[in-house]
Each structure stands twice: as C-alpha cells, then as structure tokens.
Amino acid sequence: MANISGTNLAAKIVPFTTDDTYPTHEDIYGIGGLMSVADVSARNLIPSTRRKEGMKVAVISEGITYELKGGITNSYWQSFLGNYITQISEPSINNNSFDFWNDSDSSLLYLIANINGIQKKLLLTGPSNFVTLSQTNRAWIGMTAAPNGNVYACVYNGDIYMQTAGVGNFIALGQTNRVWRGMAAAPNGNVYASTFGGDIYMQTGGVGNFIALGQASKQWEPMTAAPNGNVYVGVFINNGGIYMQTGGVGDFNLVHATFD
C-alpha cells in the first residue's frame, strides 16, 4: 500500500451543525457538481450558497436528474437526462387511450398512454419556467399554435379562444358551444378543431369562423398537422383508428385501423 501525498483526511468534510448553510467545498475541486437527494422538496431546499448554474441534482423519488440552467433559483431547474418511459398504475385512464397529466407535486408534465390495459408515462418536460397566464378557469382541453404565432385553446362544451401573436389574453372567438376536443394548425395557416361525437371544423387561413367539414360523426379527439400539410385525427374508442386529410384537402380517411 502506497502513501498518498497531500492533506490526508480521516473523515468526511462536513459543516459544524445542520443549520450551517456554507458549502463544504468548491465543486470544481470536488468529485463534480452532482448531488443526490430524496425528493423534489429536498432539491428545492438546497441553500443558495451551495448552488451554481450548471449543477445537477439526482432526485431519487422521480428517477430524474435536474440541472440549474439560466439561474440558481428553483424556477430554473430543468430535467437533464431527457425523456423516459416507465410503467405506472396511477392516474388511471381508459383502455387504449392517452391523456396528458401534470404532477402537481413536482410540476412535471407527462403523456399517459394505456395500451391493452398497460399504462405507461412519458416525461414531456420538467418545471422549466412555466408561468401562469392568469386566464379564467375553464375546461381547457385542446391547444395548438399557428404558423403566424397565434395560439388557440378550445374549451370542453364551450368556445374557442385565441391569443394574438402569443401575447396577451386568450379572447373568445364566438364559436358555438360544442364538445371541442383536439386542435391542429396546418402549415398553410388553416386551423382545425375536432368535436367528440360530432364533426371536424376548420378556420381558413386563421381568419373567421370554424366551419364544419362534413365528416362522419365520430368521437374525434387528438389532432396534429404534419409539415407536408397532411392533417391527422384520432378516434376515442377501442381500436377507433387514425384518420388523415391529405395535404389539407378533402375528407379525413382511415389510415390506421387498430392499436398495435
């Protein structure tokens, strides 16, 4: 056994008391700017004197490592290791469906999918500076952003609202109260809205009312638009299928009949 030159230590370096908030070392001289804590609450209680932008903290209860990016207060924590999928039992959703879930304890946003009775969650984003927009509490359910910067939000059994150029309040567009569910904005500026048990509606070029496209009455739900102009919509029933409007023109036709 060879001796090691330097200041030899016989125990860990620790503060004098548990109330002492001074750091025990500078991270660049330690093992690295990485800590491990039990939960989000413990992460948020790390004293500012022990924080440094770029530091990383592994939260055991979440299975996620966070990074301080852009500042050192709690609003600057961001998930560092990226998205991951894990099997869960709660919250429970219907078989062969999906939904979004916000964990109020950790401010994490997940996509929850139930495929043949097995539920999994996909982390979409960590608590990276989401700020309340102070809008009236409504049954908000679908959203999309148009190429011109306008942001839309529909209300279940209510109206469709728009925020102009991503600034200010969401203003009601005076649409008929319907069971609005999903929304999508196509590259050509057309904005779509689906209804549960009804039709699919479109606002041409982001101007005017949402007009029915004369599609068969189905439990239309999520919508999205591809860069090539194709518009997709899913049907909420077991094996309900996915439908597509080619190039933003014509009817929505079945392109995927069952869940794999």
What does this structure look like?
This protein is an all-beta fold and 260 residues long. The protein is 2% helix and 40% strand. The chain has one helix at residues 40-44; strands at 34-37, 56-59, 64-68, 77-79, 85-87, 97-103, 108-115, 118-125, 140-145, 151-158, 160-163, 171-172, 178-185, 191-198, 200-203, 211-212, 218-225, 231-235, 242-245, 253-256. The strands form three sheets. Strands 9, 10, 11, 12, 13, 14, 15, 16, 17, 18, 19 and 20 form a twelve-stranded antiparallel β-sheet that branches. A four-stranded mixed β-sheet has the order 1-2-3-4. The longest helix has 5 residues, at 40-44. It is elongated, with a radius of gyration of 24 Å. The N and C termini lie far apart (60 Å). Mean pLDDT is 83; it is low at 81-85.
Chart the SSEs and their pairings.
Layout: E1 34-37, H1 40-44, E2 56-59, E3 64-68, E4 77-79, E5 85-87, E6 97-103, E7 108-115, E8 118-125, E9 140-145, E10 151-158, E11 160-163, E12 171-172, E13 178-185, E14 191-198, E15 200-203, E16 211-212, E17 218-225, E18 231-235, E19 242-245, E20 253-256
Parallel strand pairs: 1-2
Antiparallel strand pairs: 2-3, 3-4, 5-8, 6-7, 7-8, 9-10, 10-11, 10-13, 11-12, 13-14, 14-15, 14-17, 15-16, 17-18, 18-19, 19-20
H/E series, N to C? EHEEEEEEEEEEEEEEEEEEE
The unreliable regions are: 81-85
Number of separate helices: 1
Strand content: 35-45%
Number of domains: 3
Radius of gyration: 24 Å
Structural class: mainly beta
What is the number of beta strands? Answer: 20
The CATH topology of the largest domain corresponds to Neuraminidase
Q: So, the CATH homologous superfamily of the largest domain?
A: TolB, C-terminal domain
pLDDT averaged over residues: 83
Largest sheet entry: 12 strands, antiparallel
Secondary structure: helix percent: under 10%
Q: Architecture of the largest domain in CATH?
A: 6 Propeller
